[in-house]
Structure formats: structure tokens, C-alpha cells
Amino acid sequence: MDRGMVIFVGALLTFSSSWLGLILFPYWQLNNEQPYQKDSTDEPYPQPLQGQAVLGRKVYQANGCMYCHSQQVRSEKFGNWWDENGQQRTGADIKRGWGQRRNVSRDYLYDNPTMLGTMRTGPDLANVGTRYSEQWQHTHLFNARTLNDWSIMPSFAFLYTREKVVGTRSEKALKLGREWTIDPGYRWRPTSAEWDDILKQRGLSIAERFLSDPTQPVDGKIDIATPEGTKRLLEFWLTTEEEDQQIVPTSDATALVAYLLALRKAEVPLPEAKE
């Protein structure tokens, strides 16, 4: 009985001290934290999410983005990198351009929930809104391999729709070659038989476009009857857009990109963020 009481009291003290130290004290310390203004003419930081970004946060949650991406730029004292002389330095996150300073509690004032993340299979996203354009974000979400061959990020092609072009191509359409759009989510390559059929039907018109393209280093002619010629033509054709099909973002994709562009958590200098 005495031993049982000792165990009970020990467990009670352990859980009580943990609750006080990890929940109650931080709540008391941070509960009255307010947005920061250097002076009265500055806009308060941070600002609550607005418009599409609010919906985009839900899409971010629903697709489990926080399981592979964190939202916390670490201190310059955390992490290592090597300079041009092969010397090991510290401050990997800021050195990589993931933010101008470390994150602090004030950065997450309006986050509900706060998605700090637990691992970094992919880069930190706390300040990703300052790094890439809207078009880049859509292309990367559709299939990250279109930008980085080595990427292990899954394709989110289900957030986009492949549809027939009616009239002019949509301004929202992704600017991707047909190798990525014919089979969304994968990199499509025709079989030898399929390519032979395509050459029979449209070989001359493809060759004309190839020769008129100023970006192609050609010598003024191309023989589609030779293996080298057909190979050069295939690589060119695969990188051009489909004539009658386009990939456009769904409302979920638009909202998710709006949320990513709104992530600017390490942009405004804060006094408590000094090293």
C-alpha cells in the first residue's frame, strides 16, 4: 500500500509538472502576445489569412503537406553547411534563403492550427511565398519532376483538370509540354509504333515548327527519315504544348497556391528574433 502511494504521488507530480511547464506556463507567457508595429505608420505583423488563402490552408491540411514540410526557419546556430573553402558553417536555413531570420512565436499568432511540421522530407515552407511565382507553384504542384528530375514529391495532378481548348487557351493554363499533360501525373513517351503513326500524320508540320523555332540549335534542315532526325523531332514535339488540350487548376489548387504565396513568416524583422 505504501509503495502504491509513492508511485501514485510520483506519477501525479510528474504529469503535473509537465502540464505546468509545457502547457500552462507557455499559455500564460504567450496568451497576451500582440502583432508587432515598429511605429504607428507601419502595418501590424502578422496579418490574418484572407480570401482564398483561408481555404488553401484547409487544402494544405487535407493533403498532408505538413507531414513532409515544416514551417519553422531555424536559428543560425542550428544546422550546418559548407562554404567554398570546404569549411563547416552554421545557419543552414537562412543560408539557403528559406528566410531572413529565425521564426518566433509571434509569427504564428493567427495560425489555427499551427503547422510547424515534424520532419523535412521537402524544404521548409515558412517563407515560401517570397521565393516562387504563382505559375511556378502550380507547375510544381502538378508534377515536381517538371522542374526537378530528382524530386520525390508526389504529383498533385488530381488538383488540376485536363480539358479541351475552346477558342483561345485559358490564361490560367499551365505552360507545360505534352510529355507532362497527355498523361497527368506521369511523364508520357510514345511507343515506337505510336511515334511512327504521328510522323505519318503530322511529321511535316512538326518539322516546320521545329525549323521555325528560334530556340532550336538547328542547321537549317532536318531529315525525319533518319533515326537522328526523328529523335530530335520527338524531343522537340514532347516539349511543346498540346494544340487542343490544356491543364487548368481547380478551385482547390487555386486556393492552395494562394495559401503558399501567403506564407511569409520570416520576412518582417522582429526584436525577439535576434540571435
What does this structure look like?
- It is a single chain.
- With 275 residues, the chain is mostly helical.
- Helix content is 37%, strand content 6%.
- It is built from 8 helices and 4 strands.
- The chain has helices spanning 2-30, 52-62, 92-95, 134-142, 178-181, 192-212, 227-238, 251-262, and strands at residues 80-82, 88-90, 160-164, 245-249.
- The chain has a two-stranded antiparallel sheet. Strands 3-4 form a two-stranded antiparallel ribbon.
- Strand 1 (80-82) and strand 2 (88-90) form a beta hairpin.
- Helix 2 packs across helix 8, helix 4 (134-142) packs across helix 8 and helix 6 packs across helix 7.
- The chain starts with a helix and ends in a 13-residue tail after the last helix.
- The mean pLDDT is 90.
Give structural attributes.
single chain; 275 residues; mainly alpha; two-stranded antiparallel ribbon; 8 helices; 37% helix; elongated
Overview in brief:
The chain has eight helices and four strands. With about 280 residues, it is mainly alpha-helical.
Overall 3D geometry?
A: elongated
Distance between the termini: 52 Å
Amount of beta strand: 5-15%
Instruction: Give the C-alpha Rg.
Output: 26 Å
Reconstruct the topology from this structure.
Layout: H1 2-30, H2 52-62, E1 80-82, E2 88-90, H3 92-95, H4 134-142, E3 160-164, H5 178-181, H6 192-212, H7 227-238, E4 245-249, H8 251-262
Antiparallel strand pairs: 1-2, 3-4
